[in-house]
Amino acid sequence: MPTKGIVKGIISNLVIVEVDNPVSQNEIAYIDLNGNKLMAEVIKVIEKNVYVQVFENTRNLMVGASVEFTGHMLEVVLGPGLLERNLDGLQNDLDKMDGIFLKRGQYTYPLDEDKLWNFVPIAQIGEKVTAGSWLGEVDENFQPHKIMVPFVLTGEYTVKSIVSAGKYTIHKVIAVVEDEEGKETEITMVQKWPVKIPVTTYREKLRPFKLLETGVRIIDTLNPIVEGGTGFIPGAFGTGKTVLQHAISRQAEADIVVIAACGERANEVVEIFTEFPELIDPHTGRKLMERTIIVANTSNMPVAAREASVYTAMTIGEYYRAMGLKVLLMADSTSRWAQALREMSNRLEELPGPDAFPMDLSAIISNFYGRAGHVILNNGQEASITFIGTVSPAGGNLKEPVTENTKKVARCFYALEQDRADKKRYPAINPIESYSKYLEYPEFEEYVSTRISPDWIEKVNELKTRLLRGKEIAEQINILGDDGVPVDYHVIYWKSELIDFCLLQQNSFDPVDAVTPIERQKYIVDMVVEICRTEFEFDNFNQVSDYFKKMINMCIQMNYCEFHSEEFNDYRKKLDELVKSKALETVEE
Questions:
Q1: Which residues pair with 66 in a beta bridge?
Q2: What's the pLDDT at 585?
Q3: From CA 387, how far away is CA 339, in angstroms rounded?
């Protein structure tokens, strides 16, 4: 018999229920509101009183309403057909719902239950399998979608029967497995998994080291992220967090993209829904949406569902990782998720931490980011989840708790700067404040030495040093004036500007400059470093600025030309002639 209860108190989305039998933490319950079933999650248990957070609006809910507990945690449905779906935080298919606003108590199934999938068996009868083992596959938007032994099964099983190749619905029994005691389990193409529990059906979790190419030069060159890595993008309103995330999700070398819009403004979420179906995938030439899943919770939806949305997105990502695929998960914005945690903590009257966030905020963020990573599956295949979240600090304050706690766990930090955005220097990532700890990994250094060039890390560090030196001199020029500093200082400053304009800035509206392959990035880095290592002779600071402005303009024009095209080579020839005209000597690399 399921546990039942009666509502005894209501504090907005927090409802206190008196129960007649034991319930467990994070168990799902349904509250009866005039025939509508409102989904809720247990977040605290004190004797007979159970505190549940409701994922819906609780208006008109009254004390005395009946509650029924399900005996399981918040789960997601996993199976073929998730790609191209627009889901909410509870995995309802938004396209199946009517009207502008979601109706309370309305839940839809996320998959197409009638579609026939072309199933091809992989496992053989008599084969030993465990949770996550591949039984067969179907083609899902040109992706090999593996049908696996359900993650909930423990121990070793023997495949007793498996259907032959053919077309079946997701609920058709495609295999029967038998455990060591002879108990049989029927397996369909669908399985369920609790969102709060990580999927660990892999043999080993490695330290990630393979460069994830995003086509964004300031990321790939100066602050690279790797397959299975973690990063976050903090920045004030208008600095381009969402735009940068969209660019990365469109251009990155990933098989599957999962976008979690957590508490974002409705207009930004609508842009995702309307723009992504129209975008062309630069890697395949097909629609980008074919390999994308969107999990959306707007800022006007119930705050409790924000927390569920990021966990739902991560669990879907882990499901596709178990198939041996490279998954890119983008969450926008984790600040709204943390605000939901703060609201629930305050209603529970827990001891508040800094800025009233929960005391265990650091552990919650750490556990979530820890679910990403580069793994080796039980069959030896490699797979990964790369996670990039955005943080929206109030007033652009990067010292607030969410940013500070995320800094402790994310290995890449992309600080968006209001000043760069105001100057239209996009992407507005501050090249000095931002960092990537993967540059310190010996495995990564070995990888890029082979993949790009042996002196790649050395040149990247040189570029960062020159940018820092340029910033320091810019501050001196601002205080002392152009005449107050030596001409050599102006040269150093303009060399840092050359790096900024030619390498760090990109025009996302230009078809060529929007995406830069790593081979072209290497070419630009080698060219810029060679110029920066060249000594020049000038009589005054006006000559310096005029000369470098010409050089910068040529480099920008090169960025708009097809790589190694006739026009591109012509600009390079003119650039070399310009460099020689003022060069004293070239220092050997």
A1: 6
A2: 57
A3: 20
Query: What would the two tokens of residue 360 be?
Result: 């265990």
Least confident of 102-106, 253-257, 306-310, 583-587: 583-587
Question: In this structure, what token pair is assigned to residue 77?
Answer: 């449905």
Residue 8 CA: distances (Å) to CA of 16, 18, 21, 54, 413:
6, 6, 16, 14, 46
User: Which residue is it, tokens 């040269």?
Assistant: 491
> Is the pTM for the entire model greater than 0.70?
yes
CB 209 within 8 A of CB 443: yes
Residue 218: predicted pLDDT: 96
Residues pairing with 231 in the sheet: 388, 412
Is the preceding peptide bond at 333 cis, omega within 30 degrees of 0?
yes
Q: Is the pLDDT of residue 239 over 90?
A: no
Of 2-11, 37-46, 271-280, 400-409, the poorest mean pLDDT is in: 271-280
Length of the chain as a residue count: 589
Give the C-alpha distances (Å, rounded to integers) separating 1 from 21, 69, 186, 465: 10, 10, 25, 68
HSE, CB side, 13 Å, CA atoms: give it for residue 92. 19
Contact 199, 440 (CB under 8 A): no
Dihedral sign computed on CA atoms, order 63, 67, 73, 74: negative
> What does the CA dihedral 366, 369, 374, 379 come to, rounded to 10 degrees?
90
Q: Looking at residue 586, what is its pLDDT? A: 44
Rounded CA separation 435/113 (Å): 46
CA neighbor of 340 nearest in space, from 382, 372, 309: 309
Cα pseudo-dihedral 253, 319, 315, 259, rounded to 10: 30
pLDDT at residue 589 is higher than 70: no
Phi, psi of 526 (to 5 degrees): -60, -40
How confident is residue 228, by pLDDT bands cut at 50, 70 and 90? very high
pLDDT for residue 588: 41
Asked which of 416-425, 462-471, 517-526 is least confident by mean pLDDT, the reply is 416-425
The whole-chain average pLDDT of the chain stands at 93
pLDDT greater at residue 45 or residue 57: 45
Per DSSP, the residues of 519-557 read HHHHHHHHHHHHHHTEEE--SSHHHHHHHHHHHHHHHHH
Cα-based angle 525, 528, 534 (whole degrees, multiple of 5): 135
Which tokens sit at 486? Answer: 């030596």
The answer to whether residues 316 and 258 touch, using CB atoms and an 8 Å cutoff, is: yes
> Which amino acid belongs to residue 488?
D
Taking 3-state DSSP, the helix, strand and coil percentages for the chain, each rounded to the nearest 5, stand at 35, 30, 35
Average pLDDT of the residues in 169-183: 95
Looking from the CA of 26 toward its CB, the CA atoms found within 13 Å total: 11
Residues 516, 282: contact at Cβ < 8 Å?
Answer: no
Domains and their CATH numbers in the chain = 4-73 (2.40.10.170), 117-189 (2.40.50.100), 202-436 (3.40.50.300), 456-585 (1.10.1140.10)
